[in-house]
Amino acid sequence: MNNHPIFPLAVRTLKVVGVILILSFLLDFVILSFPSGPRDSQWQVGFATALIDRGIIPLVGLALIFTGYWIEKNNSDFLVNRKSWLDLRLWAVLSSLLGLVFLLLVPIHLNNVNQARAQTIEQISQDATRAESNLQAQLGQLQTQLGDERVQAELERQRSQFRSQVNELLQDEQRFNQAIQSGQISETERKLLQQFKADPKSLDAYVAQQADPQTLLVQRLNQIRAQQEQLKQQARQDAWKSGLRIGISGLLLAFGYIVIGWTGLRSMGTPKSSRHQSLS
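Now predict its structure.
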């Protein structure tokens, strides 16, 4: 048939593209391995993630190579010189090995994710402890400074200024409504202004609380602990998402490689005579 000369070109193109895809993956593997940190769980998590994210590339390459062999097998009217390094057995074994690699990566990655999560949570706790210690030290310094009459006078001036500014705003209905509706103040400040408007005496209580070092300490400690819990929760969620996504992707890739490898090795066992008879 006139279209027979197309088959050698198609087979050669599929094999070349497949080999290029596999070599590009191996090149990425070598590059990602340096600089390596085999004992660093964070590095191992990143390495496994990058490897599995690129795992589809050699899978497509193997599919192209096997498709080329399938075309060659089912069109025996032409001859293709098959080099030993392009033998189907080589790619079947490589596919099986890659399937084993990705299968082993899944439990290793899950273990590394758990270790990285524990390290992150421990680091968050240490940072929060240091922040609380620094806050306690600052409180001690503040209490010492409050013993100075000049510092007390300056604080009293600032409290009076703040109180007068808020009172002026509360008495001016137009400015008050503009401040509430402008969106230029935070939600906490908006609620405080509404509270001061409803109960003017609460302004004096608020100013007194803000001037109390112990009250400031408690507020800041609550902020630090709330932020600490939020960061820990985020670390747990990130670890769970990474473990789930990479775990499922790794299992799917392992299944795909093993199936391709098993199919290739099985086809190698098909007698040539039976193939020729089927073709004839």
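The chain has a mean pLDDT of 78.
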